[in-house]
UniProtKB/TrEMBL annotation:
This is Flippase-like domain-containing protein. It is a multi-pass membrane protein. The keyword Transmembrane applies. Coiled coil: none annotated. Its main location: membrane. InterPro entries: L-PG_synthase/AglD (IPR022791). Keywords: Cell membrane, Membrane, Transmembrane, Transmembrane helix. It is found in: Cell membrane. It comes from the Bacteria. The chain crosses the membrane at residues 21-43, 55-71, 162-181, 212-231, 237-260, 272-291, 297-317. It comes from Maritimibacter dapengensis.
Length: 334
């Protein structure tokens, strides 16, 4: 018997409607803000900057983002196989890319839908697959923290708050991959609240499962994959600025892109929407880049990175749902 009973169909449809409205609302708010900034500087200047970008150049930006998604999707598969999950490379990419549809949920917790697909297709419980999410996020934090640190070191001018954000990213990555620390946090959380004993017990079990990923070679390779992937998107931002006549240097462009992405995430806003765009425009202004260039550049790089990923996710999400339900039904009948 399928777990997707008629009684649960209505709540799920309501949840999907809410997520869709959130997605549309966030996109609308950001679009209104960027349009307002463009209008303040004059439409002619903004249109002139946009006209500098050809379809081929726009395609290259998308290709660099795909390069990033591909590398990180491969890392997800390697982690899944290391954990012992019986999944194919195609299934891993379907789960990873399909999860991008939920990027704009608060704290990106919606991306945990990947765990639901894994449970349906393999029978593995959430606590058994949770380490996969933790280590994947940790490697992204580590890679972005290192990229930001190196970019700042090679930049002629710094970024206010750049060093603290770098340190926070590296600390977050370290804590998320240390089973002992996570177990202690779970114990302290249980003692402090005196509630949710089952939840904290699951967190402790998930933390112990992280030990399988502690091999230096595996961690080093995972960080390298993240470095290559995120550096590709940072390089895309540099190319975009050069094409628009605002060459601020590779190191500074990469630093601004990564800092804005991390800072946007730290705000807790879904997908870092709003915070990341504001940070990019403000930091470009400090480099002498006018609004007629910074606003369209920010809009384009966010479309070709964040919103491009969400678009791919929206296409693959129903496919992943359908396949996972079919395989869940097959497992139950065996």
């Amino acid at each position: 018997m399928s777990t997707d009973t008629p009684n649960r169909a209505e709540p799920r449809q309501s949840s999907r409607l809410r997520d869709t409205l959130l997605l549309v609302g966030l996109f609308g708010l950001v679009a209104i803000g960027l349009i307002g900034a463009a209008a303040a500087t004059g439409w002619d200047e903004t249109k002139a900057q946009l006209a500098k970008l050809s379809l081929g150049q726009f395609g290259l930006l998308l290709a660099l983002s795909l390069f990033n998604y591909g590398f990180r999707g491969l890392r997800w598969h390697l982690f899944a196989r290391k954990l012992g999950l019986p999944v194919t490379l195609g299934a891993s990419f379907r789960h990873y890319l399909g999860g991008f549809a939920m990027t704009v949920t608060p704290g990106r917790v919606g991306e945990l839908v990947r765990m639901r697909w894994l449970r349906r297709e393999t029978g593995w419980s959430f606590e058994r697959t949770a380490p996969l999410v933790l280590v994947d996020r940790a490697m992204d934090l580590a890679a972005m923290g290192l990229i930001l640190g190196v970019a700042l070191a090679f930049s002629t001018t710094g970024i206010a708050g750049g060093v603290p954000v770098t340190i926070l990213a590296l600390i977050g990555a370290f804590v998320a991959t240390r089973p002992v620390i996570l177990e202690r946090i779970a114990k302290l959380g249980h003692r402090a609240t005196g509630r949710l004993p089952r939840l904290f017990a699951r967190v402790r079990r998930a933390a112990r499962s992280l030990k399988i990923f502690s091999a230096p070679g595996l961690m080093g390779g995972a960080v390298f994959v993240g470095l290559v992937g995120w550096a590709a998107e940072g390089y895309a931002f540099h190319l975009l600025l050069v094409w628009m006549g605002a060459d601020i240097g590779l190191a500074k462009a990469v630093a601004i892109f990564v800092f804005a992405t991390l800072a946007g995430g730290l705000t807790g806003a879904p997908g870092g929407v709003g915070g990341a765009e504001a940070a990019m425009i403000a930091l470009l202004a400090l480099e002498g880049v006018g609004l007629e260039t910074s606003v369209p550049a920010t809009a384009i790089i966010r479309v070709t990175t964040l919103w491009f990923a969400i678009g791919i996710g929206l296409i693959l999400f129903p496919v992943a749902e359908k396949i996972s339900k079919r395989q869940e039904h097959a497992l139950e009948n065996n």
